[in-house]
Amino acid sequence: MEHLVNPRVKDIQISGIRKISNLVSTYKDALTLTIGQPDFPTPDHIMKAAHAAIDAHKTTYTPNPGMLELRQAASAFVKGKYGLEYRPESEVIVTSGASQALDITLRTILEEGSEVILPGPIYPGYEPLVRLCGGVPVYADTRNNGFKLTAELLEPHITEKTRCIILCYPSNPTGRVLSKEELADIAKLLENKSIFVISDEIYSELIYGQPHVSLASYPGMREKTIVINGLSKSHSMTGWRIGFTFAPEEITQHMVKVHQYNVTCASSISQYAALEALTNGVDDALPMKEAYVQRRDFVYKRLLDMGFELEKPEGAFYLFPSIEKFKLSSMDFTMKLLEEQKVAVVPGDAFSIYGEGYIRISYAYGMDILEKATERLEMFVRKL
Ligand code: PMP
């Protein structure tokens, strides 16, 4: 019966990140630097709130867009942190992670043949969702610009069919952040254009320097931007599956329909946990951030000392060094490193063809692992 499976679904490949993680589990003693999730436990007060919700039998459906109190807390959070104003009643949706937020957003705005501009290299979660909607991914190559999408790089890719641009800053996989000026230029370019921007700000709390600035806060951008955020990274809550969309009412009202028929609502227990996170844990990311900065500085310096060329990441928990000088494809480099030194990283080509020639190293691991893994990496590159 496989011939009856939707060809669009058949064409989707499993993510390169998963492929490597699955392979690593077959190696004994492998050190893995592949995973994109915090290694910290969910803060205790959030766990307690979830237990209390279970004990109080708060286990029923919630309103489709999420509990109003949680939408109020989410709205207050993005106002307090980033100066964004969204009405909790009609402009916020609680989703099952940022992943589902992306899915309902794309399904709400794309139609057959809609072009979606993606800065490459980029998080591999976007392209399959675009394709499932019949959309056409169009990549803007950011490699010669320190992995930053600028108005100049963006402009030549805009056509009559462009429906949306997806931005992710701080970026997975590069850790780069768009500056205020770069965002202002993009806002200016889009000023008179009817094009949506999906602004994936899931790493907004993990930014190491200047404060996070959302594209939606620029003049004229609120009406065309759908901001996506969530608690997976900021509160170390990947498994709880809580994300948010912030968008003007005229778009949100349509997204809610897709959301309703898709999942009805996000998990009620997780919503109570999220309410606690956004009420009494608004700065929970701070101690984790301190640890990430220390780890970033350590691995960054080690890589430089080994002779890698790389940009200094300003957010998220990834480094994206070039491996071009080793004359191996990113997959061959990754496989050889795993076989010879039992260290797993993600080949850059998992982040589109624009990631070829790089590897992604996650530093969401304890210092002991990072020390051992970088030692092994050093032995590996010395022999190459
Ligand atoms: N966007 C980016 C850029 C990510 O890195 C991730 C998770 N790795 C997601 C979205 C999905 O996050 P969530 O766990 O909230 O679905």
TrEMBL record:
InterPro entries: Aminotransferase_I/II_large, AspAT/PAT-like, NHTrfase_class1_PyrdxlP-BS, PyrdxlP-dep_Trfase, PyrdxlP-dep_Trfase_major, PyrdxlP-dep_Trfase_small. GO terms for molecular function: transaminase activity. Its cofactor is pyridoxal 5'-phosphate. It is an enzyme of class 2 (transferase). Its EC number is 2.6.1.-. Residues 29-367 form the Aminotransferase class I/classII large domain. The keyword rRNA-binding does not apply. Keywords: Aminotransferase, Pyridoxal phosphate, Transferase. SUPFAM superfamilies: PLP-dependent transferases. The keyword Transferase applies. Pfam families: Aminotran_1_2. Belongs to the class-I pyridoxal-phosphate-dependent aminotransferase family. This is Aminotransferase. The lineage of its organism: Bacteria, Bacillati, Bacillota, Bacilli, Bacillales.
